[in-house]
Amino acid sequence: MTSATARKMNIPRAHKNRTVGDWTIMVLLIIGGLVMLFPFIVLLLNAFKTTADYNASGPLAWPHEFSLDGLIKFWTRVNYPEKLWNSIWTSGLVAVLAVILSMFNAFALGIGRVKGRRWIVLLIMLANMLPQEAMLYPLYIMFKEIGLYNSPWAIVIIFTVIQSAFGTYLLSSVYGTFPKAILEAATIDGASRWTIFKDIVFPISKPTLSVMLVFFFIWTWNEYMIPMAFLIDNSTQTIPIAVSSLTGDRLMDVTTTAAASLISIVPTLIFYLIFQRTLSRGITSGAVK
């Protein structure tokens, strides 16, 4: 079909000419993307430099010699495989437990309609606004008394509660808008609460749960203050604490720190790329619903 025939039949063209506003938005988005990538580019440039090369050329120059000294030094100094396993174990366990706890809490609040639901949701929202600095001392006393201080389980318990508080607040508002007709029909057919949750609510909320799982993992991975206060032994520490140990009071090896920062974000980047499709599908599904 020719373009003239298409115009006569009033068939809209597949592609429209971009306006000046479209090009302006595209240019601004590209500039914004470059600004966001700039720290990562600087990190790449300095992670593979020698200390002498950095001192001679500065942080923005291209490396004169490709060097892995910073990566090797960080790998051996902090026992990186051990720290990597600690971070993966802690973040993964927190993400799974927080999603499960959020799901059951939200089901009780959003669909179970427990008494005082609004006040409970309000308290959870206020708890999300509480800064971590205010919780350090009470948590320290509590876990010291029960014998879990300097244990990875303390971090798992703390962040499972923190992340599930946000997850419960988010999911309870979602479950609160769940169609009552479906729930009433299932109840009339003899479905129990567990059957309604397992066969109706859980399958529909899978996209939202997958998004929460990804975010909970990344948020827990990047946590620094509470793990620094609760994990004293070197064998229990996570990657962010290992990176901070490279900076001394008066001395900092810039190239080693850059290499450590680069290698510390690679696992989360790989995790995000693996679950990118799941994340985008979950966000899109939530927007459509």
TrEMBL record:
Chief localisation class: membrane
Presence of the UniProt keyword Cell membrane in the record: yes
Cellular component annotations (GO), alphabetically ordered: plasma membrane
Residue ranges constituting the ABC transmembrane type-1 domain according to the UniProt record: 84-275
Transmembrane intervals: 20-45, 88-107, 119-141, 153-171, 200-221, 254-275
One GO term (biological process): transmembrane transport
Topology relative to the membrane: Multi-pass membrane protein
InterPro entries per record: MetI-like, MetI-like_sf
Pfam families: BPD_transp_1 (PF00528)
PROSITE patterns: ABC_TM1
Location(s) in or outside the cell: Cell membrane
Family stated for the protein in its record: Belongs to the binding-protein-dependent transport system permease family.
Protein name stated in the entry: ABC transporter permease
Organism the protein comes from: Bifidobacterium cebidarum
